[in-house]
Amino acid sequence: MSATFLKSIPFNRTHVSGNELGYLTEAVRQGFTCGDGPFTRRATGLLKETTGAKEALLTSSCTHALEMSALLLGLQPGDEVIMPSFTFVSTANAYALRGAVPVFADCRPDTLNVDERLLEAAVTDRTRAVVVVHYAGVACEMEAIGELCERRGLTLIEDNAHGLGGSYRGRPLGSFGRMAAQSFHATKNVQCGEGGALLLNDAALIGRAEIIREKGTDRSRFYRGQVDKYRWVDIGSSYLLSDVLAAQLTAQLESFGTIQSRRHAVWHRYHEELGDWAAENGISQPVLPEGCDHPAHLYHLLFPDPENRQAFIGHLADRGVQAVFHYQPLHAAPAGLRYGRAAPGGCPVTERAADRLVRLPLFPDMDDADTARVIDATRTYGVR
Ligand SMILES: Cc1ncc(COP(=O)(O)O)c(C=O)c1O
Questions:
Q1: Is the Cβ atom of 160 under 6 angstroms away from ligand 1?
Q2: Distance of CA 59 to the CA centre of its chain
Q3: What CATH number does domain 256-379 carry, 3.10.129.10, 3.30.43.10, 3.30.360.10, 3.90.1150.10?
Q4: What's the first-to-final CA gap in the chain, in angstroms?
Q5: Is 69 in the pocket of ligand 1 (CB under 6 A)?
Q6: Whether residue 161 has its Cβ less than 6 Å from ligand 1
Q7: Which of the 8 DSSP states describes residue 227?
Q8: Is 349 in the pocket of ligand 1 (CB under 6 A)?
Q9: Which of 67, 197, 279, 368 has a CA between 20 and 30 Å from the CA of residue 184?
Q10: How far apart, in whole angstroms, are the C-alpha atoms of residue 181 and residue 239?
């Protein structure tokens, strides 16, 4: 097939649900363009409904929400935080910035989530927290991980960048950790370009979290009329999301149901129509354990070896389809070696998976013809 006259299918295209421009105009016209304005209140309400969080604070990114969680933990240099090696750099950076040591645990070969059976061996007397990442929005084994954290007195944090709308045994992702971080980056199911949120499931954290997000001041209390002036009361930074971006986010959250049903339609077609091809070629499709409802955040395939993964990406590119790899193991990255260390046993599963994984295009505006083109292009590849 020649791609010459066909439009390329990108890995991701941001979706416009309809009300974005109207809300953006309203935000600009009403003049409340800094943080914590009317659209922030609307988006926060919708986010709390979806996740069941006690409080949600919109932030300028998931990276910043994670940094806030590190400040809220009151980490001291040398404290340790256990997390997967198979994750985005921000998961580790947030804690390394406070002088803590990221301890990287290996992932499960099926879901690519942190392997809950390896966590106990990673705990030392300096361990303060466990950060989980629900890869592709498929839940980690939260029962076992929650039990470990409880028994060893560790704070559980969810990096829920992928997981909005996902659940584990009927309970929303983002509601398991004492804190959870969301991303509204352009690549996420619900997006405002750059944005995020810190979900707080422990009411005791709310007051200090508001202060940290407002440059270390009690300005939030001042706005509510609870103090007559605001002052510098703690360390903090500027982590608020502009209300202009919160306007875009509000429109997206209001359309969450539509966005999700379109993403699920593409995900399910991939899963069904690539099943026999994957089996014949020794390629693994995503695995969904019992009790995990996922939000169709991404569709990934695991090839038998890195050479076939690279050749497949080139095969799709020749047919006008953009497929991409994903995380590079943090335990072996230059900064991972400098600031962190691997948990006992290392991360061999992560190393093997990272080299063999590819993600197919998945966005709400893929129509049936686009989806069929990706499937056809994929099925014409044969593992060598
Ligand atoms: C697991 C994970 N955590 C954190 C982030 C950072 O998100 P943001 O770009 O909103 O800071 C990402 C980004 O993709 C991610 O995949």
A1: no
A2: 14
A3: 3.90.1150.10
A4: 20
A5: no
A6: yes
A7: S
A8: no
A9: 368
A10: 13
CA nearest neighbour of 326 among 340, 314, 338, 309: 309
**302-316 confidence digits (pLDDT tens):** 999 999 999 999 999
Cα–Cα distance for residue pair 241/198, rounded to 1 Å: 11
What does the domain layout of the chain look like in residue ranges?
Answer: 20-254, 256-379
Q: How far is CA 271 from the centre of its chain?
A: 22
Looking from the CA of residue 195, the nearest atom of ligand 1 is 10
pLDDT tens digits for range 176-229: 999 999 999 999 999 999 999 999 999 999 999 999 999 999 999 999 999 999
Q: Which atom of ligand 1 is nearest to the CA of 87?
A: 1
DSSP letter string, 88-141: -HHHHHHHHTTT-EEEEEPB-TTT-SB-GGGHHHH--TTEEEEEEE-GGGPPP-
Q: CA-CA distance, 182 to 72, in Å (whole number)?
A: 16
- As a whole-number percent, the residues of the chain with pLDDT over 90 amount to 98
- 140 contact partners, CB below 8 Å, separation of at least 6: 111, 113, 114, 116, 132, 133, 134, 168
Cα(30) to centroid(ligand 1), Å: 31
- Here the tokens at position 381 are 């590849």
CB atoms within 10 A of CB 80: 23
Residue 114 pairs in a beta bridge with 107
What whole-number distance in Å separates Cα of residue 364 and Cα of residue 256? Answer: 11
Instruction: Lay out the sheet containing 292-293: strands in order across.
Output: 171-172, 167-168, 292-293
Task: For ligand 1, say whether the CB of 183 is within 6 Å of any of its atoms.
Answer: yes
Q: Is 87 in the pocket of ligand 1 (CB under 6 A)?
A: yes
**CATH code of domain 20-254:** 3.40.640.10
Q: What is the pLDDT of residue 2?
A: 47
Nearest-atom number in ligand 1 for the CA of 185 is: 10
pTM above 0.85, yes or no: yes
